[in-house]
Task: inverse folding
């Protein structure tokens, strides 16, 4: 017999680079159910970066949502996904092309990455009904009435869909649309770039885009924004570090600071504050590769003065270098180094990237708030503390973007005021990681050498 929980929950779904996460969250922010469905990223060459969009953005999203909904009264459903992404879709919203992801060579265009994606898909799939990001595909999948066969999981591409399951329109929120500049104009999608009918609907408020099993579905948003809502990095001096496949650094500041190579965004919760920083490929994308190469040994105790240096640009770099041609390199390896030192140096390089962002931003940080799936990796959290010489407050829930999407679903369901500041009550820290003095001193000595190695590598790459 199915037992239904007493209070309603909202479901939040996060489409990430390497997995779809979903959580069912109660009014107090407690996770009542969770699921993670891993999926591959297709990268047959360093220039290609794509998803099987029909499996990942459509089928896996539906299975994840329905899995965490079992046994709960679902008041609403929210969506978040990585940016940028784009796929050609048919009239039902089903992808008919791969889902092209940020950093793919097809985005190399003088007018911006999204324009490059769009022009490629227009040429390769000229009869497409539209060109939608992951958020719009997922929203259309959820708002249907039919079912998606579970055999579509794990990126097999074998999708069995009842044709009544498909919405006829897709939708995205304002944050996702803003990430698609210059496609977004002052009054909506800019017809100078594309027929607006080929792009998803814009939902600039909290109204639902449709329903699934009677529950309202909110328009999909950007994963980093959803993460910020519930992180608790809300004061000047806070540094939000999102530790996912992508490593994202946001230093919270007053006013509107700017620095070369960096991005500045408004704080999503506190008016008058901004975040300066941006995304890097030195997160899980880099660390998973090094773990695979080293056999993921237990690092144990090491001499803090005896590490090589990693240039961590395994498939180019986003902020602050904005160079897709950069590649990784291991510097200073000697006969005394083994897999443990090589892996420890990789975690340290990821921390150095955060420190580099903070240096360029010219901020005076007080602490790091670490969120994302990488918070489960203790060595990574310790390296963040040691390289920055800052305390690291580790979020209690690793599925932050999905949890933030669940809060946005509460707004759409009418359970919260439209002011997203209410999400701050969901911010919870599990524990604090302090820098180790001997390691912080060693990192401070290595950091200038790391900067010089990265600069030399970028210069050699042309």
Result:
């Amino acid at each position: 017999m199915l037992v239904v929980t007493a209070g309603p929950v909202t479901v939040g779904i996060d489409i990430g680079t390497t997995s779809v996460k979903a959580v069912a969250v109660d009014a107090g922010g407690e996770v009542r159910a969770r699921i993670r469905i891993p999926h591959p990223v297709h990268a047959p060459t360093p220039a290609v970066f794509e998803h099987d969009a029909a499996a990942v953005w459509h089928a896996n999203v539906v299975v994840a949502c329905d899995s965490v909904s079992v046994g709960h009264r679902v008041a609403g459903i929210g969506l978040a996904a990585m940016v940028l992404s784009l796929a050609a879709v048919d009239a039902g919203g089903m992808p008919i092309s791969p889902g092209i992801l940020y950093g793919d060579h097809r985005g190399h265009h003088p007018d911006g990455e999204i324009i490059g994606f769009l022009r490629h898909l227009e040429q390769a799939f000229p009869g497409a009904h539209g060109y939608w990001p992951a958020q719009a595909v997922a929203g259309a999948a959820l708002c249907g009435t039919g079912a998606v066969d579970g055999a579509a999981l794990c990126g097999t591409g074998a999708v069995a869909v009842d044709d009544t399951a498909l919405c006829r329109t897709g939708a995205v929120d304002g944050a996702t649309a803003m990430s698609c500049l210059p496609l977004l104009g002052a009054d909506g999608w800019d017809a100078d770039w594309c027929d607006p009918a080929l792009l998803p609907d814009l939902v600039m408020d909290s109204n639902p885009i449709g329903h699934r099993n009677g529950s309202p579905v909110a328009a999909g948003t950007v994963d980093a924004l959803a993460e910020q809502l519930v992180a608790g990095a809300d004061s000047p001096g806070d540094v939000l570090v999102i530790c996912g496949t992508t490593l994202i650094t946001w230093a919270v500041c007053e006013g509107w600071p700017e620095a070369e190579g960096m991005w500045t965004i408004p704080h999503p919760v506190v008016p008058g504050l901004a975040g300066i920083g941006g995304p890097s490929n030195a997160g899980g994308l880099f660390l998973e590769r090094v773990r695979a190469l080293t056999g993921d040994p237990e690092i144990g105790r090491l001499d803090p003065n005896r590490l090589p240096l990693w240039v961590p640009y395994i498939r180019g770099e986003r902020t602050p270098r904005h160079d897709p041609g950069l590649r990784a390199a291991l510097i200073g390896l000697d006969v005394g180094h083994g897999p443990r030192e090589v892996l420890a140096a990789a975690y340290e390089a990821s921390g150095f990237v955060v420190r580099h962002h903070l240096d360029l931003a010219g901020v005076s940080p007080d602490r790091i708030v670490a969120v994302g799936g990488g918070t489960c990796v203790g060595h990574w959290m310790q390296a963040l503390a040691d390289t920055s010489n800052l305390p690291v407050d580790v979020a209690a829930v690793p599925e932050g973007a999905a949890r933030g999407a669940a809060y946005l679903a509460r707004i759409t369901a009418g359970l919260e005021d439209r002011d997203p500041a209410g999400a701050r009550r969901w911010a919870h820290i599990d524990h604090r990681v302090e820098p180790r003095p001997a390691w912080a001193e060693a990192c401070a000595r290595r950091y200038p050498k790391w900067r010089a190695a990265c600069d030399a590598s970028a210069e050699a790459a042309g």
Summary: The first helix runs from residue 53 to 69. The radius of gyration is 22 Å. Residues 145-168 have pLDDT under 50 and may be disordered.
